[in-house]
Automatic annotation (TrEMBL):
This is Gamma-glutamyl-gamma-aminobutyrate hydrolase family protein. SUPFAM superfamilies: Class I glutamine amidotransferase-like. It holds the Pfam family Peptidase_C26. CDD domains: GATase1_2 (cd01745). Gene3D superfamilies: 3.40.50.880. Keywords: Hydrolase. InterPro entries: Class_I_gatase-like, Peptidase_C26, PuuD-like. One of its GO terms (molecular function) is hydrolase activity. Residues 81-101 are annotated as: Disordered. The keyword Ribosomal protein does not apply.
Length: 246
């Protein structure tokens, strides 16, 4: 594994390479109008860079996971819903999935787990982790918790209290934090083989992890949009080979 500010054979400074899963969505700029584009919010890149890593954008691709040979960590970004067929449920009319992302990210995740590569799942990414570990999702949280607080309005983030399990990785990473942002309409119903280590005040799962691995953490909120994106920083440190990372 690469270490932050280590020197390569050419004498250049090497940073941990963090793959960030991306969307394919219609977009327009300059002379291009409404064309399919590989996208990821700059906030993810900015958070990785600020933590000392180098961001590598990964378009959906389920042909293989060979790119992981050159990566030091994997960040499963937020986005559209995970397809409910992946966890054995019929689709709710309000579920909007992206099969290409599911296929590509699950291919990457399987290989990352086999290699014990550090992994951080954000929002959709956390939900994908749960599904990969045999869990299930609530397809529309307001039906479960009785309110829209986790996604107050289109494009509007909510904020709510959060608590973390004592002695957990999530608790160590987020020490002193008692509120997080929120923008999602689905949530983890059953974490499968993962350990739930964070909860909102209404009981919604906010953090999951696998304590048997070097670093595998899922968070339901969007740390890349916080001024103190601790989970992203922890991922980069783990990817750098810092075995002392909390």
């Amino acid at each position: 594994m690469r270490a932050p500010q280590s020197r390569t054979e050419t004498g250049l400074v090497s940073r941990p390479l963090i793959g960030i899963s991306a969307y394919v969505e219609p977009a327009g700029w300059a002379v291009w109008r409404d064309v399919p584009a590989t996208l990821v919010p700059q906030a993810y890149v900015r958070a990785v860079t600020a933590a000392g890593g180098r961001a590598v954008v990964l378009p959906p691709d389920d042909a293989d996971a060979d790119v992981l040979r050159v990566l030091d960590g994997l960040l499963l970004a937020g986005g559209a819903d995970v397809g409910p067929e992946r966890y054995g449920q019929p689709p709710d009319p309000r579920t909007e999935s992206r099969p290409d992302r599911d296929a590509g990210e699950l291919t990457l995740l399987a290989a990352a787990l086999a290699a014990d590569l550090p992994v951080l799942g954000v929002c959709r990414g956390m939900q994908l982790l749960a599904v990969a570990y045999g869990g299930t999702l609530h397809q529309h949280l307001p039906d479960v918790v009785g309110h829209d607080g986790h996604r107050p309005a289109p494009g509007v983030y909510g904020s709510h209290p959060v608590r973390f399990a004592a002695g957990s990785r999530a608790g160590a990473v987020m020490a002193g934090v008692d509120r997080v942002n929120s923008y999602h309409h689905q949530g983890v119903a059953d974490a499968g083989g993962l350990t739930v280590t964070g909860w909102a005040d209404d009981g919604v799962v906010e953090a999951v992890e696998d304590p048997t691995r070097r670093f595998l953490l899922g968070v339901q909120w969007h740390p890349e949009n916080d001024r103190d994106p601790r989970p992203v920083t922890a991922l980069v440190r783990a990817a750098a080979g810092d075995r002392g990372v909390v």
